[in-house]
Amino acid sequence: MIDEITFRKESDQALEALKQALFRAEEEGSFEAEEKNGVLNVLFDDGAAKFVFTPNTPVRQVWISALSTSYKLEWNAATHSFVLPRTSEDLLTLTERLLREQLEDPTITLTA
């Protein structure tokens, strides 16, 4: 497990990169990204759903609440990214997949 200072630095950078990718993709999809108090939210135009991205410092994970599921990403030193252990998807790739599923739009693309 990485130390707290490293976790905070890496999770801040990862969530900032994700936020910027979401801002760039907002025009393609029917959603809006916003950050409040260190929590990144994706709000959908239909108002029926919301994705929430939060760093969880005590367990050194980035948590995503989306599609009625909780995803817990762990730091992977080899890839220098937060990944979902079950699928090996990194934060950006997983978010892109979740957006595509929510919006039923396979053309949504997130770029770093």
Describe the structure.
This protein has 112 residues and is of the alpha+beta class. The chain has one domain (4-103): Metal Transport, Frataxin, Chain A (2-Layer Sandwich), CATH 3.30.920. 31% of the residues lie in helices and 35% in strands. It is built from 2 helices and 7 strands. A 7-stranded antiparallel sheet has the order 1-2-3-4-5-6-7, with helices on one face. Strand 2 and strand 3 (50-56) form a beta hairpin. The model has no long low-confidence stretch (mean pLDDT 94).
The CATH topology is given as: Metal Transport, Frataxin, Chain A
Q: Please trace the helix and strand order, writing H or E for each element.
A: HEEEEEEEH
Cα(first) to Cα(last) distance is 25 Å
CATH top level? Alpha Beta
- Mean of residue pLDDT values: 94
Class based on secondary structure composition and strand pairing:
alpha+beta
Q: Could you tell me the number of beta strands?
A: 7
Stretches where pLDDT is under 50 for at least 5 consecutive residues are none
**Considering the protein shown, what is the CATH homologous superfamily?**
Frataxin/CyaY
Order of strands across the main sheet: 1-2-3-4-5-6-7
Number of helices: 2
Summarize the amount of helix as a percent range. 25-40%
Note the topology.
Layout: H1 4-25, E1 31-36, E2 39-44, E3 50-56, E4 61-66, E5 69-76, E6 81-84, E7 89-90, H2 91-103
Antiparallel strand pairs: 1-2, 2-3, 3-4, 4-5, 5-6, 6-7
Protein traits:
alpha+beta, Metal Transport, Frataxin, Chain A, 7-stranded antiparallel beta sheet, 2 helices
